[in-house]
Amino acid sequence: MRALAGTPAQAAGALVAKLALLFDRATPARTKDAQSRTAALLQELETVDKDGTWKAPFLRFRARHRLMLNDFEGAAKDYRSALNACFDRNYGMLQADIAEEGLATEVAMRGLDRKTQDYWYRHIVNLGQGTPLFEDTAVRCDDFFWSGLYQPYVGVEVRRSQVTEELRDLIIRTFKLILDADLTRLRSWLLKYEKRLRSLKLKDVRGDSLLVLWMKQLAHLEQMAHKPVLLGALRPGRERPGAVMRKAIRVLVELWPEQARTCDFKRQTPLMIAADDGDAELTEVLARLSDVDAQDYLGRTALHAAVTGDSSKCVEFILDMNPDVEKVTVDEEQTALHTAVRFGNLKAVSLIAEEFPCRVDKVNAAGLTPLDLARDLLKNYKEWQHIMRAKKRRIGSPEDFQSIVVHLENFQA
Question: Are residues 188 and 226 in the same domain?
C-alpha cells in the first residue's frame, strides 16, 4: 500500500493501516523494536499527512503509544484531541472507539468522576447501541483498560491498578482468617493495619471501602453456598463461609462503625446491599449504624432495597428507624410503597401503609398513586410478569395484587 500510494493521503492511509496492525497484536507478539518502529511510523505519518486527513487516527495511535510508555496524562490529552478531530471529518465508529479508550484511560488514572468524564460517556452512548448507565460503562472501561488496552512495551515497567494491588493484599489476608473462622486474629489484624484500612476508599472506579468489599464478597459466597466444589472444601464441623463472613462483618462494624456509612461508586451503602439480598441479620445490625435515608444513584433508599429483597424482616428493621418514606427514585419518582406494589409484595405494602398511612396518596412521575398502580398492574398482570421475568425478578401472584388493591382501598376509605 505504501509503495503504490499516489498521493500523500494514500501514503498516510497505508501508515495508519500499518500502525493498526502493530497495535492490534497480542502482548506476547510484541518485539523489542516495537517502540522504535511505532515512534518512527508516527513521525512519518505526522509529516506525510499535511492536510490532516488522518488526524484523528494519528492522535489515537499516539495516545496508545504514550500509554505503552506509561505516559497516562499525555495519552489522555491525545485522546481528547483525537475526539475533537472527529468533529472535523466523518470518522464513523472511530469516534466511539476513541471515546471508550479515552474514558478507560481517565478512570484508570483518577477513578470515577462523572463531572469530568461525562464528555467521554456521551460520545460512547451517542454512537454506540443502547444507553448503558454511566457507572456501568465506567466499570467496563476500567476492566478494558487493564485487561486489553494497556500493554507496555518490552522493557517498560508494568503498572498495576490500585484495585489489583489493594484487593490482592486484602482478600488474601482477610479471607484466610475469615475462612479459617479465626475472628480473634482477624480483629488483631484489623487493629494492626487500622491506619491503612479504617478510612480505606479504593481509588479505582468502584471506590469500595473494606466493608463494602466484604458485603459484595458475602453475596458471592451465598451464591456459591450450594456448589459441590465449595461444600467439598469445608472441613467437618466448619461453619459455612457465609455465616463466618457475617460474624467478620460484625467484628468490623464494632471496631469501626463509620464503615456502615460508606458507599460505593453507585452510592450503595452496606445497608442497601444487605437489604437487597434479604439479609435480615445484617440489615438489623447495619440499620442502627447507617443513614437509612441515603439514596443511591437511582434515588433508591434502603427501604426500596428491602422491598426488592422480598424480606419482611428487613422492611421491619428499616421501618423501626423511622425512615423518610417520601424519598422517591430519580426517573420514575417511585416511593418504597410504589416499589412494594410493583413487586406484588403484600406484606411490605401492609407494613409501610400501616406505619405511614398518609403516604398512600403520593403519586409517581406517571401521576399514579400506589392504589392506581396496583389496579393497573392487576389489569395487565401477564404483561407485567413477562417484563419482570426478563429482568430476572419475581413478582407476587394475581391474588397478591388483588389483596393489595383491597388493602389500599381500605386505607383510602
Answer: yes
